[in-house]
TrEMBL record:
Gene: glmS
Function: Catalyzes the first step in hexosamine metabolism, converting fructose-6P into glucosamine-6P using glutamine as a nitrogen source.
Active site residues of this protein: 357 (for fru-6p isomerization activity)
GO cellular component, one term: cytosol
GO BP term, pick one: fructose 6-phosphate metabolic process
Domain SIS: 45-189, 214-352
Protein name: Glutamine--fructose-6-phosphate aminotransferase [isomerizing]
Record carries keyword Cytoplasm: yes
Full-protein interval shown: 239 to 600 of 600
Catalyses which reaction(s): D-fructose 6-phosphate + L-glutamine = D-glucosamine 6-phosphate + L-glutamate
Tree of life domain: Bacteria
GO-annotated molecular function: carbohydrate derivative binding; glutamine-fructose-6-phosphate transaminase (isomerizing) activity
Length: 362
């Protein structure tokens, strides 16, 4: 049938979409380059960003996780305060808004009812919103003041992969453009760095057997799995854990390395798999000591580190990219681990139970 043709040689959409990621990132860059090859976004969006004193990012699921990374990008590059909220909670736990807020709705489908609920409410209050979406003409795009498209192409698998990395690329471009508009000299070349990140993603994608081996040795007979990281690695851990639980049904949780000792470490037993992520030089010592703590309690640790920060016992080393862009690369092995774990367990990779690609009820 038609869906088989679209899948081409791939057994699953998810694998196809994982593989497409390097070209998606290259495509996003080209879509946001002007005639001189410089990164440039719509001047109305630039003005809206410049004119706001605080950004409120709203999303659900994987798009919420992209928002967490986006907060770091915007704060570090453009020095603009950002809050990130889960859409379904925003209206109950409504933050006290700043004087000139700008809302950024992140949604692959642009149809998620929870996110739309927030948009409708803040529009009533007279605030402006920018939607970052993969679907031109979607509800959230039409109802917001501005749109930035993620240009990832249709995403069919329920578990989001290429839409997430495309969201990260667009957030990088937005943060860079915002910094530039404010006259900041941040010494970051988005075109060059994103292209290096795309190459690094490709290298990881070409090492699939390695991820299969990891699944075989850590996840073949487990009922749970923990992902630990600090700083931005923690946000990627949340996404890695979500991928694993969504499609393999292994109970998985992402934790901030420093929080382990405040409760979670009680769950570590002999053989409990722990995936640890390390891409940021500033937290290397701390996450390595968390790894020691869980190993001392019997955990079986799969350490994934970035070149330059690795130790010989690390299970996987990802190529070096700019620290801002590490999530684009470090998420790839986590996506593939989830994929192979689901395959290994005979799960329906593209259509996991109880989940829908786009959730249009609140
Ligand atoms: C659903 C999907 C998730 C997705 C979330 C948000 O729950 O199963 O994969 O992250 O909705 O979707 P959106 O289209 O708003 O990004």
């Amino acid at each position: 049938d038609a869906s088989d043709i679209e899948k081409g040689p791939y057994p699953h959409y998810m694998l196809k979409e994982i593989d497409e990621q390097p070209s998606v990132i290259r495509n996003v860059v080209s879509k946001y380059q002007d005639r001189n090859g410089e990164i440039a976004i719509d001047s109305n969006i630039r003005e809206a960003m410049k004119g706001s004193d605080r950004i409120y990012i709203i999303g659900c699921g994987t798009s919420f996780h992209a928002g967490l990374v986006g907060k770091q990008l915007l704060e570090k590059m453009a020095d603009v305060p950002v809050e990130v909220h889960v859409a379904s909670e925003f209206l109950y736990n409504r933050p006290i808004l700043s004087g000139k807020p700008l809302f950024i709705m992140i949604s692959q489908s642009g149809e998620t009812a929870d996110s739309r609920g927030v948009l409708v409410e803040i529009k009533k209050l007279g605030y402006r919103a920018l939607t970052i979406t993969n679907v031109a003409g979607s509800t959230l795009s039409r109802e917001a003041d501005y749109t930035l498209l993620t240009h990832a192409g249709p995403e069919i698998a329920v578990a989001s992969t290429k839409a997430y990395t495309a969201q990260l690329a667009v957030l990088t471009i937005l943060a860079y453009d915002c910094a530039k508009a404010k006259g900041m000299d941040i010494g970051f070349d988005p075109v060059g760095e994103l292209s290096l990140a795309a190459n690094a993603m490709e290298i990881m994608i070409n090492r699939k057997e390695k991820m299969e081996e990891i699944v075989w040795s850590y996840l073949s007979a487990t009922r749970n799995c923990f992902f630990i990281g600090r700083s931005v690695d923690y946000f990627v851990c949340l996404e890695g854990a979500l991928k694993l639980k969504e499609i393999s049904y292994i109970q998985a949780e992402g934790f901030a390395g420093g929080e382990l000792k405040h409760g979670t470490i009680a769950l570590i037993e002999e053989g409990t798999p722990v995936v640890a992520l390390l891409t940021q030089a500033s937290i290397a010592g701390n996450i390595r000591s968390n790894v020691q703590e869980v190993m001392a309690r019997g955990a079986s640790v799969c350490m994934i580190s970035m070149e330059g920060l690795e130790e010989s016992s690390d299970r996987l080393v990802i190529p070096k990219v700019h620290e801002y862009l590490a999530p684009l690369v470090s998420v790839i092995p986590l996506q593939l681990i989830a994929y192979y774990a689901a395959l290994f367990r005979g799960c329906d990779v593209d259509k996991p139970r109880n989940l829908a690609k786009s959730v249009t009820v609140e």
